[in-house]
Amino acid sequence: MPNLNRIRAIAEKEVFHILRDSRTLAIIFIMPLLQLIIFGYAMNMEIRQVPLIVDDQALNSDSRALVEAFVQTDYFQLVPHREGNLRPEDLFKERLAQATLSIPRDFGSQTQQLFLKIDASDPNSAQMIQNYATGIVNAYAPTATGGIDLRAQILYNPDLKSSYFFVPGLIALILVMICALLTSISISREKEMGTMEQILVSPVSATEILVGKVLPYILLGLIDALLILGVGMLLFQVPFRGDFLVFLLFTFLYVLTSLCLGLLVSTVAKTQQAAMMMALGLTLLPTLLLSGYMFPISSMPPLLQKITYIIPARYYLQIIRGIMLKGNSIQHLYQAGLSLMLMSGFMLMVAARRFKLRLS
Amino acid sequence: MKSLKVIATFIKKEFRQIIRSREMLIVLFGMPAVQLLVMGFAVTNEVRNLRMGVLDYDRSAGSRALISSFESSDRFLMVPVDTSDKAKALISSWKAQVVLVIPQGWAADHQLGRPNSLQVVLDGIDGNTAAVANAYVAGVVMDYHQRSMRGQKHRAPQPVNNPPPQLITRMSFNPDLRSSMNTIPGIIAILVTVTSMMLSAISLVKEKELGTLEQLMVTPVKKYQLMAGKLIPYLIITLLQLQVAVLLAGVIFGLELAGSYLILMMFSVIYLFTTLGMGILISSRVASQQQAMFFSWFIMVVIILLSGFFVPVGNMPRAIQWISYFNPLSHYMTVLREIVIKGSGFLQLLREFWILAGSGLLIFGFSVASFRKRV
Fold it and tell me: Is the distance from CB of A325 to CB of A339 less than 8 angstroms?
């Protein structure tokens, strides 16, 4: 039977550890704010002012009007054509331009063809540049025979603001990083310093050690989550349409899952260094890339889609986006919640078993 | 001669320490390989397999033809529904991201050229996906319209006296627009940065925390011998990791190096002076491994986000572009991408060479100079 007093003693000791290390504490709070600002202001998917080199052989009124149409938009920026006939590939290698437009000599009379070459080393940008250019050329000569009126209605985020997407995502990322990383380090530190043996020979049980160690980090993680939520709502006007209590409940569940992950890592890793590397490898990149935080899961190859089922953030993202943006209630989200519960139960079981083995 | 021997002893000791723990080997070589594989496939801005609910009030041959043209593209997976309540619930319960509503009598109106409309409802939570999905839907509908117009014989195409300009696009270096071409060199740059910085950031502080640094301090070992003995193994390990990553990129993603391997290695060695220097700087200023870890995590997240990996630096606001100019990872990533994708030569990367060499000299020099051999 776990003794509450002993748990409290261990937790208090852990709190002292956290408070004494003011630099780590500062990073834990500054980090999410800095990321919010970077994501809010720097992560802009829209490209503007693409450097374009125009090779106009025709030099007639038609070609000039077309070039003018390119320049007048905010999408393209004309780069002066240098002397000497460089091939587009060489221009791209010099990074002087991202696209070249060549207009043949008989444009407007014999031919109506224009040639656009795009540096596709960044395929996403290349696709966008192509769309812009096609749009400009089509607008220049309206061929509109569109007989079907397509009415699009965008739910939950009609202005397609990216902040609606990344503020909830950031909460998921920061929570897993703090909970998994800090717990794994705190336990492997005791092992490396040899203080774990001292605790183990005391009358404290393994469960008491684990619970006592984990409690302060749950609190720290929750404070951080609320900080991001508050600043995100203030700075970027992200709505909160659902029930706050449901949010807290599921967030607690997610924090628990992350902590179990950290515990599991710490039972495997023998040194702090290994624990940090493992925890980082298991949290940072998978949460960024495989949870649907930045890249849609449905676009991944089938095998990877299956792997995403073991990433806790995948479920939490659905939960937090659902609550904040869609106003989902428990009945929409219970499946995701159950998955989190199953995962944390499984990890806790394995961790406890490995931990006890070490004891005997 | 003797000092070289001292350094060699240190290098041997460092390597032994790393090789001794199997988990460290897995962390250093197994995990990066897995990350490369996973990320190479996951990082894509394409949108595929979107679940699309269809509410067909029309139930005519025309509406079925429209639905089947959605089905035949691999962008959409169709989810038929029969009532508007169910259609609404699809999006709120995460069962579909798009809903298409075909009103009654739509196909007949369209066939006869009367005004007609289709309704598309999109889940806007992921703004990027929603915008892309909307464009796909418009494309499929436009395509359907043109095909059905062509099919109608009695509607002869109007004589065109002035044909509109026609844009012909060619994609250089990556004609199939494969995402992996761009992301794999980026991932490799990140892996190299993370490994070298983490290893060196923890190196000194670990000895400090375990008390072995004091023992080293009282020996006659010189400062530079200590530093060289620590850093050379990390340099070698990171370069080895780079080899593994480049090899995997070639074997699994079919990404062949367009440029010179030697230039790639040269730039990597130059770049590693910056990251190892940053690690040493952190290591000599913090009190515990945990602090070292958090400081390097802090720096890495910022430099990775602003490196141009997720979003091209050119898209960022001017002020942030200016900050990115001081981000060594951003320049190293440019170098890797240029060499791997375009096969650029040294002269085309001259600017990056000066920047990386300068930052390496500055940061590494400062970190070595500021490290004091005392407790």
Answer: no
Phi-psi region of B105 (alpha: psi -120 to 50; beta: other; left: phi over 0): left
Give per-residue pLDDT as tens, A126-176. Answer: 888 887 888 788 777 654 444 667 777 778 877 777 778 788 888 888 888
Of A347, A167, A341, A166, which Cα lies nearest the Cα of A254? A341
Contact residues on chain B for A138, CB-CB shorter than 8 A: 164
Mean pLDDT on B215-236: 84
**A150 vs B38, B141, B315: nearest CB:** B141
Let me know: does A118 contact A130? Beta carbons within 8 Å. Answer: yes
Three-state DSSP class for B311?
Answer: coil
Element (H, E) at B228: helix B223-253
Structure tokens at B29: 């070589």
Q: Give the separation between CA A202 and CA A198, rounded to whole angstroms.
A: 7
B290 vs A contacts (CB less than 8 Å): 21, 24, 185, 189, 272
Say if CB B123 and CB B98 are below 8 A apart: yes
Q: How many CB atoms within 10 Å of residue B4?
A: 10
What would the mean pLDDT of A207-227 be, rounded to a whole number?
A: 85
* Inter-chain residue contact B164 with A286, CB threshold 8 Å: no
Nearest to A153 among B121, B165, B298 (CB): B121
pLDDT band for position B159 (50/70/90)? very low
The Cβ-side half-sphere exposure at A197, using a 13 Å CA radius, reads 3
Which chain B residue has the Cα nearest residue A277?
B27
pTM of the model: 0.79
CB A273 within 8 A of CB A247: no
Q: Hey, which bits of chain A come out as E strands?
A: 50-56, 76-78, 99-103, 113-119, 149-155
